[in-house]
Design goal:
The chain is an alpha/beta fold. The chain has 16 helices and 17 strands. The chain folds into two domains: 2-251, Metal-dependent hydrolases (TIM Barrel), CATH 3.20.20; 262-451, Aldolase class I (TIM Barrel).
């Protein structure tokens, strides 16, 4: 399922053909649409369309182009319109210094007033920003204490602006212009964490290739998704699932991610055995948002799967290039289940079985477990993340204390010569000393890989 998070279904190019536009969207797998208001009239139009069609939701706002037309009744108007049960956001609001159809000072005033309403109503915002990032960020920072969130729609900034958007906790959405030849947005899409990306058409504008020059409509969302999939090295189904989960997380539109114990990404199958972990890493969202690539991996202890349940969920393991024991918990905590499933995978002819681990297996079981992995595990990725025991404990907050760092090093050494491929990994969060960690990997005699921060799976 896809969700078009930004359409203007009431615009004259679309509204006379609304029945066919919605039918086309459904046929293309676009099952939910958010239609966006930009002033009093279009807000009311959006509300009416949403009321008439189950698959359509609405956002109400005041576009920066029309800032000069807003009066002292703006707050009362938007509050009344936002009270509609199908309103999921305040927007489209923001700043536009490219066209400057309203004075910049007035734009900033209206934008600030609209953010105040969104904060009061605890609704996310849909932001329009053209050549006004500095002022937009400055104004938004005044509302961060209210935990205001939202999306920069039709994102047009570079990687520098992207980082600031992400630091504010916002999403970005991309339109058909990512499909244009030599699009400057390709590098931005590549840099954006997929868990912060939404899909939109902004129809009737910005029609994607190969329909450029014609009227845009929600049915073209898969074309945008396909370009993002190719840029991110993901499958089209990955993009559909992840962006749908993102839309639910921000707007509450669609269905929440289903709980998963096995979850395919690209051509790999991942297995989540537990949510328990011996680390409480500062950068890990395990406790707050245990979702990876659109899969909800959170589980209570009593929900931990048996080996039989895992095997049943896997189905045919030969469909995948590799099978990976990896979740938001430490898989070696459930060593017996891991070994039983690994034996079954090997009996079925799976060529590559991998474990992603924090390297605490020996500490957890108070013995060297590595010989038990021999012949069953072909590759093991061990998260180190810091080059000293003091730094490791500060960031990873291990239940084993200061001894945990050396425990990871000893576990890694024990894997050498027993498991064919051994890799030390580090997450590229701010201030990480990747070079020092790489040097440790070289001294131990294993490979090193730097993993992207905020890009799980």
């Amino acid at each position: 399922m896809y969700i078009d998070t930004h359409a203007h279904l009431d615009f004259p190019e679309l509204r006379p053909h609304l029945s066919s536009v919605l039918a086309n969207a459904h046929h293309a797998g676009v099952e939910k649409i958010i239609t966006i208001g930009i002033d009093d009239v279009t807000n009311e139009n959006a509300l009416q369309i949403a009321a008439d069609h189950d698959e359509v939701y609405a956002a109400v706002g005041w576009h920066p182009h029309d800032s000069e037309k807003a009066d002292h009744n703006l707050e009362a108007l938007i509050r009344r319109q936002a009270d509609h049960p199908k309103v999921v956001a305040i927007g489209e609001i923001g700043l536009d210094y490219f066209r400057n159809r309203s004075p910049q000072e007035k734009q900033r005033e209206i934008f600030t007033r609209m953010l105040g309403i969104a904060s009061e109503l605890t609704l996310p915002v849909v932001i329009h920003c053209r050549e006004a990032f500095s002022d937009t960020f400055d104004i938004l920072r005044n509302f961060t204490s209210d935990k205001l969130t939202g999306v920069f729609h039709c994102f047009s900034g570079g990687i520098t602006e992207l980082k600031q958007v992400l630091n504010l906790g916002f999403f970005v959405s991309f339109t058909g212009n990512v499909t244009y030849k030599n699009s400057a947005l390709t590098s931005v899409v590549a840099a954006a964490p997929i868990e912060r990306i939404l899909l939109e058409t902004d129809c009737p504008f910005l029609t994607p290739q190969p329909h450029r020059g014609k009227r845009n409509e929600p049915a073209y969302i898969p074309l945008i998704a396909d370009q993002i999939a190719r840029t991110k090295g993901l499958s089209l189904s990955d993009i559909a699932r992840i962006t749908t989960a993102n839309s639910y997380r921000l707007f509450g539109v669609g269905e929440p991610p289903a709980k998963s114990i096995v979850y395919p990404i690209r051509n790999s199958l991942y297995i989540a055995l537990t949510s328990r972990c011996t680390n409480t890493c500062r950068f890990c969202p395990r406790a707050t948002n245990p979702v990876v690539k659109g899969y909800n991996l959170g589980m209570d202890d009593e929900a931990e799967p048996t080996s039989e349940q895992v095997i049943q969920a896997i189905g045919d393991p030969l469909k995948y290039e590799e099978v990976v024991f990896c979740g938001f918990g430490e898989p070696t905590i459930r060593l017996d289940v891991l070994l039983q499933v690994a034996r079954w995978l090997k009996s079925k002819g799976v060529q590559k079985v991998r474990i992603n681990t924090n390297g605490h297996g020996n500490l957890i079981h108070r013995r060297n477990i590595v010989p038990e992995l021999s012949g069953l595990i072909d590759s093991i990725s061990i998260s180190l993340n810091e080059p000293t025991s003091e730094r490791y404990q500060k960031i990873m907050q291990s239940e084993f204390g200061e001894s945990s760092f050396q425990g990871v090093i000893d576990f890694t050494r024990a894997c050498v010569g027993v498991i064919p491929e051994v890799v030390i990994t580090a997450v590229s969060y701010p201030a990480v000393d990747a070079e020092a960690i790489k040097n440790i990997a070289e001294r131990v005699g294993v490979k090193f890989r730097l993993r992207a921060y905020n890009d799980l799976g």
